[in-house]
Structure formats: structure tokens, C-alpha cells
Task: structure prediction
Amino acid sequence: MSYATIIGFLLLAISYMIYSTTNQVFAEMVKDYGFVIGIVSGIGFGFILGGFLGWLFKYRSLAKESKKEVANKDKV
Result:
């Protein structure tokens, strides 16, 4: 199971916990300024985390390919 899947399940569980503990109606929550800021900042953090994870997985795959190329050059 990859890190992205684990983080996805963790965020899903946290969002369900937050949803189940609130007693307000969604329409009233949207009118609240703090709620809107929380949604926007959550999306921003999600993009940052997703970008970092994407870069990390790409970096790891490129490092593995470069090691294979170096090993293949030594064999030839």
C-alpha cells in the first residue's frame, strides 16, 4: 500500500469525524467566514502535499532508473 493511499484513507477518516461531530447545517457553515477560510486553506495544503508526494515518487523512480543505467554501462 503506497503512502498516498494511506494518507487518503487518513484524510477520509478525519473528514468523516469532523462531519459527524458538527451539529450545524451546511448552509449555515458556508456563511461563516472561518469555515470558508478553512476550506480554502485545506485545498491549498492538499495541493502542496500532493505536489510534494508526486515529486517524491518521481524522484525515487528517476533515481532507480539512473542506478540501472550506471549498472548497465558497467556490464557493457
Q: What stands out?
A: The chain is about 90% helix and 0% strand. Helices lie at 3-21, 26-31, 33-75. The two ends are 36 Å apart (CA to CA).
